[in-house]
Amino acid sequence: MQPVRRTSLIAQVTEQLRAEIRSGRWPIGSRIPTEPELTELTGTGRNTVREAVQALVHAGMLERRQGSGTYVIAASDLGGTLTKYFADAVERDVLELRQALDVQAARLAAQRRDDNDVRTLLRLLDRRSQVWDTDSTAAVDADVALHRAIVAASHNTVYLEFYDSLLPVIEDVIRSRTTKYGNQYHDEHAELVHAVIDGDSDRAARAANCFLGSLIAEYPER
């Protein structure tokens, strides 16, 4: 970050903090620098930094944790809003929404993936398989990263930004579902990834639909 001008300090610092989050330099789940560190980074006073941080807390992008620090909980204002809105959502409902998003993302990814996407998908698929039975936290992280990479392979920036806004909610459901049911679905993920890599959009969409349909079926109808 760069020192800011002396006009509209709070707004400028708020935008700088928001930019750090949206760029991924401060990823979801990470602790941001302390107030003294932010004061030094921005060249402003602690009151200005405190107000800027509080603005992003109100926006739902940051969360203060007593005795621990301030953490990133959403990658955008929209993400913060959706995280709060879906805080009490029924898990099956979230999965049904995710099914609609992931199926079309898989179709687009199969049509548009490039060599970098292929390498990323294979790496994340392998990572997911390696950690699933040994580290539950890493397993969920790998699963989320893999599905996000499929959306990224669609090369639709609006799609990816909206998906990123939902990631905290999606991650919570994945973590909860894994604790309850524990099914790995390694073969289903491999089929999905290889359908995308092979450029078979119908097969990719079908794989995503079947996999998420199986997840939804784990939950009783309301």
State the CATH class of the largest domain.
Mainly Alpha
CATH architect. name of the largest domain: Up-down Bundle
Assembly type: single chain
- The SSE string, one letter per element, is HHHEEHHHHHHH
Which percent bin holds the helix content? Answer: 55-70%
Q: First CA to last CA: what distance?
A: 49 Å
Radius of gyration based on Cα positions: 19 Å
CATH homologous group name of the largest domain: GntR ligand-binding domain-like
Domain module count: 2
GO molecular function, one term: DNA-binding transcription factor activity
Organism: Nocardia nova
Protein name: FadR family transcriptional regulator
Domain HTH gntR-type: 7-75
Describe this structure in words.
The chain has two domains: 9-75, Arc Repressor Mutant, subunit A, CATH 1.10.10.10; 79-218, GntR ligand-binding domain-like (Four Helix Bundle (Hemerythrin (Met), subunit A)), CATH 1.20.120.530. It is globular and about 55 Å long. The model has no long low-confidence stretch (mean pLDDT 88). By secondary structure, the chain is mainly alpha-helical. The chain has ten helices and two strands, in the order αααββααααααα. Helix 1 crosses helix 3 (46-58), helix 4 (77-85) runs parallel beside helix 8 and helix 5 packs antiparallel against helix 10 (201-217). Strands 1-2 form a two-stranded antiparallel ribbon. Strand 1 (62-65) and strand 2 (69-72) form a beta hairpin.
